[in-house]
Amino acid sequence: MYTTSPEALGDLFIDEPRYRTDQLVEWLYTHPVLSADDMLNLPKSMRKQISEDHWPFVLDMEQSADNGLTKKWLLRCTDGSAIEAVLMGYPTRTTLCISSQVGCAMGCTFCATGQFGFDRHLDAGEIVAQVAYANAYLSESPLPRSPERVTNVVFMGMGEPLANYDNTIESIRRMTGLMGISARSITVSTVGFVPGMRKLIDEPWPLNLAVSLHSTIPSERSKLVPINDRYPIDDVIAAAKDYYDTKGRRVSLEWTLIAGENDSDEEAIGLAKLARKIHAHVNVIALNPTPMSSDLPPSNDHIRRFLGTLRREGANVTLRDTRGKDIDAACGQLRLRADTR
Ligand code: SAH
Ligand code: SF4
After folding, report:
1. Which of 139, 212, 254, 277 is most buried, with most CB under 10 Å away?
2. What's the pTM value of the predicted model, to 2 decimals?
3. Of 250, 338, 327, 274, residue with least CA distance to 69
4. Is 102:83 a contact under the CB 8 Å cutoff?
5. Which of 169, 170, 130, 136 is closest to 153 using CA atoms?
6. What is the 277 CA–ligand 1 centroid distance (Å)?
7. What is the CA angle 303-304-310, rounded to 5?
8. What are 103's strand-pairing partners?
9. Nearest ligand 1 atom to alpha carbon 159
10. Cβ(197)–Cβ(243) below 8 Å
11. What's the CA gap between 50 and 53, in Å, rounded?
């Protein structure tokens, strides 16, 4: 269903009256439900066809953490591929972290998805259906003391969204146009895929852009983020600066802190300098160890020291909480577990 664009939904049911398109848009996007059986004003035959031929994925595994404020889902697509989405409740927002690809071709050494390799792109429908699933889930089981609909979306699950550009954009068009999500509450996170960053500047929406930097020293960054050889850090920063200058939206620089790799004073000073230059906000997150790498996060003392240096050097910094640490919430980890169980 979601694979078909909202405008063309009627074409799937040519014998039905035209108003069915509006009803379908309502059930798929405005007030999503967990099962086609709940689409009460549609004829039974249609509901059956929807659930048999057109349902985007089934829930394969659900995990809960942080006293019910974090839910992590492994969703199984119709071709058997597994993707992850993570729902996080906060007092003023409910944030969904979504996947844009099955696997990822960028091969970052510390990332479970990168270690897995690239399988395929998700289509726009499979991307947006993760949001619909979350809204359907929330309508039945809201998270404690959090908004009962998805208010924020971050493209920080599996995959590199800007390497799957058209599908990412089409999914955003539907989220903003049909699902009541403000573009200002959507964050596209990129490893620094420069052609996509450049195209995003020309899109009409004031989206948030997060750039996963991880090192400011080119040779070090190439070790952690191999795509740095193709899109070097200077080009990434130039594109981020243009994004800020054109959109007036503060870019965030993401930094996964890995003991002995990118946690030195030199890195902190270099990062603060870059952040000041392009008016960026820095988000530091401690590495969530993955099974296929021996990398570890620094000690808490060392993390504090790194943050202290950044602040002293004039950077705006947030230490991102590691929601769902105990449920393998870092990108790609639940799937690794599922496929080896
Ligand atoms: N491909 C995009 C978006 C998905 S990854 C990107 O790289 O930005 C989303 C974020 O999760 C990135 O900032 C990435 O560096 C981070 N990440 C990946 N694996 C991690 C791990 N094991 N521990 C902590 N953060 C991780
Ligand atoms: Fe891909 Fe992002 Fe993981 Fe790197 S961190 S491998 S770009 S998903």
Report:
1. 212
2. 0.96
3. 327
4. yes
5. 130
6. 23
7. 90
8. 118
9. 1
10. yes
11. 6
